[in-house]
Amino acid sequence: MPTVLLKQGARFAIRAWGDERNCALLDYLAELERTLSADHARLLYLLQRTAELGPPNNERQCRALKGKQAEGLYEFKT
Predict the structure, then answer these.
(1) What is the per-residue burial (b if ≥16 Cβ within 10 Å, else e) of 8-46?
(2) Which helix (H) or strand (E) holds 63?
(3) Which of 17, 22, 39, 60 could form a disulfide with 78 if both were Cys (CB 3.0 to 4.6 A apart)?
(4) What are the residues whose beta carbons fall under 8 Å from the beta carbon of 78, sequence distance 6 or more?
């Protein structure tokens, strides 16, 4: 499946499954922005921080997914 680049940082590139026309995460972020949700800014900050410094060690913000196909995949939480 193709991926779309969300953030490029010094240490990591943050990508989501999909493309510019069909990406669930981009749709979700657009909906958060449209509804003026505070989660929009928090999630963008967390993605940018992760691209620059790596995933946070706080599992309330981010956790590594487990499984053979999940290496390098993370779930971000607000």
Answers:
(1) eeeebebbbebeeeebebbeebeebeeeeeeebeebeeb
(2) strand 62-64
(3) 39
(4) 39, 42, 43, 46, 61
